[in-house]
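Page header: ASSEMBLY MODEL / six components / 748 residues total.
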Amino acid sequence: MPEHRRGPVRSEAARLAILEATARLFEERGYDQLTMEGIAAEAHVGKQTIYRWWPSKSAIVADCLVEGLLLSEYLSPPDTGDLRTDLVTWMRGILGFLENGGASLVRSLVAAAIDQPAIGARLEETMGVNDLLRARLESAVAAGQFSASRPTQAFGQAFVGAIVLHALVATPAEPDAAERLVDAVLG
Amino acid sequence: MPEHRRGPVRSEAARLAILEATARLFEERGYDQLTMEGIAAEAHVGKQTIYRWWPSKSAIVADCLVEGLLLSEYLSPPDTGDLRTDLVTWMRGILGFLENGGASLVRSLVAAAIDQPAIGARLEETMGVNDLLRARLESAVAAGQFSASRPTQAFGQAFVGAIVLHALVATPAEPDAAERLVDAVLG
Amino acid sequence: MPEHRRGPVRSEAARLAILEATARLFEERGYDQLTMEGIAAEAHVGKQTIYRWWPSKSAIVADCLVEGLLLSEYLSPPDTGDLRTDLVTWMRGILGFLENGGASLVRSLVAAAIDQPAIGARLEETMGVNDLLRARLESAVAAGQFSASRPTQAFGQAFVGAIVLHALVATPAEPDAAERLVDAVLG
Amino acid sequence: MPEHRRGPVRSEAARLAILEATARLFEERGYDQLTMEGIAAEAHVGKQTIYRWWPSKSAIVADCLVEGLLLSEYLSPPDTGDLRTDLVTWMRGILGFLENGGASLVRSLVAAAIDQPAIGARLEETMGVNDLLRARLESAVAAGQFSASRPTQAFGQAFVGAIVLHALVATPAEPDAAERLVDAVLG
DNA sequence: GCTTAATCGAGACGGTACGTCAGGTCTTGCG
DNA sequence: CGCAAGACCTGACGTACCGTCTCGATTAAGC
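Prediction written out in full:
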């Protein structure tokens, strides 16, 4: 029989205020302008309340991702029946997002991922690899446009990796970058 | 006729001491344990001498990469005549390097790249995309193993991106990760 | 009903440690060898704790004076009934103190007074003008040795000023300097 | 036969430029805003040229005083025949000068005097003690207004000391401060 | 209802590193 | 060889945050 704790439970209001303040500041200023003191002030919360529940700022950012506060998840590949066209459309959308301010957000997420591998994993997922892209690929396999023997996860990693690299290098994408990347990988 | 500057010129000794100290500390402790004060102390140099010539620590790290002080460039793909085998061998080497401490170094370089796009570009290059991998791919085209129409640069970006992602996510590679990645991309 | 402040209160231990460290270093090394970093180290205190409560090192020195940590207040004129003799004795004591290392302490205090007028005022007081010397003069007025019409404060300022000047100029006092000064002022 | 030095001699232009720049900056900003680098820049002179000839900034300030670049020497006591009236007039002039910005200049000079006793001596002189005041006192002795037995130098020190103290404490002088000081000292 | 204990906002604490400023010395090329 | 210029090493400056600790108030479960 478990020992019941006495006293008040964790304040959901504080938890949410912290996550929202973090998301807000993260998008405004980026990962390394993000400070624990800044979050505490923005959320009207004591620093100790943060440290009681999270060990580091990257952990908070990870939670923001998990709660869907950070990357809008509109980034799923369409399914018109033609795999190559769909992948190109999808990549164009992502590259467009990167060019319009998205790059710095992704860079910041990468920065957060550096000392919080879970963020990297979540980033991979969020950008479509595990679920959305896989679903699209399986649809393509069914349509005979994609060999069932090609490993879908690694395939997705190559795409997301290229995107991340693109965000890091920060060179403006050439007009046909989407096509070229899809062609390079799709064969 | 050029205006001659008067006064002392930049001290090459100081410049080298700083770069070497940076490389040393970077490999020992990683990017964010790297501090300007630490570099100054390790190089027996005044902080001002650093700030006179570099605006930020990421800029120094970038210079280290450019001077070849940071990533040994042994990472070129072999050429046995069989492209798939060679790429798998190459990837295995890299993944092995990541598993044995290399991952944190790459993570640190990514951290450095975040506010210094030139580092990202140099990182891309250093890890073989532009020259070494391209050469191998052209050899494969000549051998009829690779379609001349597939864009080699984007192809390389997919590889390097996957590697970077792998280093970020930091999950131990599965035994056949190299094969799967090559198969995914090569088709 | 007073508003209660929440949170920790100022640490008296830190406050005292800082003042004592300051007094110690001030006497050892003088005002301009005194550094904020030195005080922080000597007091085992963070620099911010100093800057939180004092705006400048002269303000700390002023507080040291106020707390009586700096000038031993043994410098009161005796009262044997003969004003001139007493003043000479008193001046001799002070000049002797100046010759034996006291001059540099007074010089340092003057340095501190330069950007902290309160120190000057306190210095004036401490050296006896306002209270001790005035009491002695009143006693002399009662004894008919001093005209009640002579302003005692200005009288004291002349004495202390001469002492300060003496400490600044740093010429070794001639044997009869005390007598001459008293005679000059007393008339 | 003396060895003749070879090479150019000390540049009088540089020497003057340095002294003038020092006087200019000193009056504009005060002693501790005065920096060697600032002087060098203002005088269009290399720092080494300063260090070659002066050991410290207070030494330069001392030279400025000696060259008469700093304190206008208009501060001599008048001689109407009535000593007390003359001293009061003289003190009033000085106190007025202190109130109108002179105090900070005197404070700065005192700061300079702290590590350059010669400045203190020169300051004492400049403010009239040794020559001008003594001459006036001797005239008073001749007129039977001042006892020949009172030591004139110590008398002057009391005056100048009170002035210095006044500049340090920085309290606005009361209207009758001049009278009171003269009466206190004169008896 | 009272006790007890964990929560909360606030913020002081000892520290580390920051990026800047000035100090005093050393080096370079010109006159 | 003096000079203007300026790079060098050093060390203190005042600031920003770190992560921990302390305060008084609040809140909820157990008695």
